Amino acid sequence: MQVTLDLCMLRPCRDGDQPHIVRHANNPAVARYLRDLFPQPYTLKDANDWLARVARQSPPLNLAITIDDRVIGGIGLSPGFDIHRISAEVGYWLGEEYWGRGIAACALRGFTHYAFATFPDLNRIFAYVDEVHPPSIRVLEKAAYRREGHLLGASIKHGQIRNQFLYAVTRAEAIRGSGVFGRES
Fold first, then answer.
1. What confidence tens digit (pLDDT) does each residue in 16-64 have?
2. How many CB atoms lie within 10 A of CB 94?
3. What are the backbone dihedrals phi and psi of residue 86, each rounded to the nearest 5 degrees, phi first?
4. 182: which of 59, 110, 143, 163 fits an S-S bond (Cβ 3.0–4.6 Å)?
5. Dist. CA 158–CA 33, nearest whole Å
6. Is pLDDT above 60 for 6?
7. Going by C-beta distance under 8 Å and a sequence separation of 6 or more, which residues neighbour residue 80?
């Protein structure tokens, strides 16, 4: 399974991806706005643990962002549960040398299409983004996500309380804007 897009490809992570994952993930600038669960420093053991975890997913919730079949980032869903089971949070990261090229927005558009096509009960995909992280805000907006809210004092990173924005897209919105999504092969 893979999703072929204009600027990159999405596919499940596999054995052999570890050196590429570590190369791009072991960067404090990459981890700066990510959850604390994203290790820093990012080691080969972390990459092996990640691959062992995502290898059990069927269908995959987490995909590698690749160029020339080399991992340059990752994107994934965290499904809601109980009454929120029709929603899922999306998260993504990209190696610093690939920033500013439109790759993250391309990957998010393609992944959004993949998620709605793969998980028929999924109705809404959302993301939290720090208000002081304009590049990620632009990624979400380029991928047709809309701002739903401003969350004051919603998170803490490196001991600093942060404000965040909440962005989302629904299945109906994604279908209406389906021309922006990639093709799956």
1. 999 999 999 999 999 999 999 999 999 999 999 999 999 989 999 999 9
2. 23
3. -95, 5
4. 110
5. 10
6. yes
7. 86, 87, 88, 89
Reference 25, options 49, 1, 60, 59; nearest CA is 49
φ, ψ (nearest 5 deg) of residue 28:
-55, -30
Instruction: Report CA-CA distances (Å) from 121 to 79, 86, 88, 145.
Output: 11, 6, 11, 19
Q: Which tokens hold the place of 177? A: 């804007």
Q: How many residues does the chain have?
A: 185
Closest by alpha carbon to 132, among 106, 160, 90? 160
| Cα–Cα separations (whole angstroms), residue 3 to 10, 15, 47, 95, 127 | 5, 19, 22, 19, 21
Six-digit token pair at 124? 């809404």
Whole-number Cα distances in Å, 57 to 40, 52, 73, 77: 24, 10, 18, 11
- In 119-175, which ranges are E strands? 124-130, 146-157, 160-170
Collect all residues with Cβ–Cβ distance below 8 Å to 116 and sequence separation of at least 6: 122, 125, 171, 174, 175
Q: Which runs of consecutive H residues, i.e. helices, occur in 9-162?
A: 18-25, 28-31, 44-54, 103-118, 134-142
Contact 55, 49 (CB under 8 A): no
pTM above 0.90, yes or no: yes
